[in-house]
């Protein structure tokens, strides 16, 4: 009697079907992961603006209340990165970071709000927020999750 070695057509079709199911599950998760990585770059690009706000607040008598874009000394070069369109500092030190070309449904806009307890020499705490429609693309600190306290930095 002849012995056949190898797989039957049915076995090969089952393996291909299983691989197809795994790819169908993994591909959307991977795409979301790449968008989150691009948005995370925006958080990293915001660090110098946070530092500028903190240093300006510590050097002014009114603390955060006296911080503006003009006196912070922070300037964001428009083409410094592929995924961040702008970083602006509003009065009071609030930082708005606008992303671009992240690949998601919409490009998230992250808002970093500083708070300072007591005196102008107190440490600055940052709260990050983002619109609800882009929540799955932003870092955990910006998801506005009431269970986690909204996220601080």
Task: Report on the architecture of this protein.
Residues 110-123 have a biased composition (Polar residues). It is a single chain. With 153 residues, this protein is an alpha+beta fold. It has a single domain (9-142), classed as Glycoprotein, Type 4 Pilin. It is built from two helices and four strands, in the order ααββββ. It has helices spanning 9-59, 69-72; strands spanning 84-89, 95-99, 109-116, 124-129. Strands 1-2-3-4 form a four-stranded antiparallel beta sheet, covered by helices on one side. Strand 3 (109-116) and strand 4 (124-129) form a beta hairpin. The termini are far apart.
The amount of helix comes to: 25-40%
Q: What count of domains describes the coordinates?
A: 1
Order of helices and strands: HHEEEE
* Overall outline: rod-shaped
CATH class: Alpha Beta
How many helices? The count is 2
CA gyration radius, whole angstroms: 24 Å
Measured between the Cα atoms of the first and last residue, the distance is 73 Å
User: Unreliable segments (pLDDT under 50, ≥5 consecutive)?
Assistant: 146-153
Transmembrane segments: 12-30
Biased composition (Polar residues): 110-123
GO cellular component, one term: pilus
Family: Belongs to the N-Me-Phe pilin family.
Keywords:
153 residues; alpha+beta; Glycoprotein, Type 4 Pilin; four-stranded antiparallel β-sheet; 2 helices; 4 strands; 16% strand; disordered C terminus; Pilin; N_methyl_site; fimbrium
